[in-house]
Amino acid sequence: MYSISVETVINALYLVAIVVEAMTAAIAAGRRQMDWLGVCVLGSVTALGGGSVRDIVLDHHPLSWVERPYLLFVTGGAALATIAIARMMPRLRHLFLFLDAIGLVVFTIIGCRIADGLGLPLVVVVASGVITGCVGGVLRDVLCAQVPLLFRAELYATVSVLVALTYLALMTSGVGEGLALLGGSSIGLLVRLAAIRFHWSLPKFIYGDADY
């Protein structure tokens, strides 16, 4: 019963996460003046892309949206629904930042769970979590012809690594998956929200010699 409860929580948070990612992608599509099909495609790619890349790299099949095709309707529908409420998005900015942070930690933990279930080495498990948490946003920005937000904004991939390590450390300590999920998520949320609030970021490399 306890493991079923954990699965239920993870699945519910996963659905919230993919909806939020699809909606933020729809806003990016709107800034690029994409048509409705482009909005729908970009929303689905952003929400499901990280998990798809992870599964392809790990040779883990079927892909989530192949096994559960309704996810395409969820993400595409969420992206299209954003068109109707686009004018409200500025007022919902803080809510979406919070939900996006939840999405990051949930995607990361899901990626770790899948790689760990395959018996892969620790570094691969952590990388799987980071790929799941971050690559969808990278695909969104690449398709929008932008430098990925991952490389130019507040701590993001670093938070994903921290979530993965915390979750795995707690799992190794034997506290149980429920507490490991809670601990990893809490640490990730606190650091990500603090990074947004105080503009924490890694040092930037700036090279201005045009002659080289």
TrEMBL record:
Localization annotation: Cell membrane
Keywords from the named record: Cell membrane, Membrane, Transmembrane, Transmembrane helix
Transmembrane stretches, start-end: 12-29, 36-57, 69-88, 95-116, 122-143, 155-172, 178-195
Residue intervals of the Glycine transporter domain: 13-83, 98-170
Coiled coil: none
Highest taxon of the lineage: Bacteria
Pfam families: Gly_transporter
Main location, first listed in the record: membrane
InterPro entries assigned to the protein according to its UniProt record, in alphabetical order: Gly_transporter
Topology with respect to the bilayer: Multi-pass membrane protein
Annotated family: Belongs to the UPF0126 family.
Protein name from the UniProt record: Trimeric intracellular cation channel family protein
Organism: Pseudorhizobium endolithicum
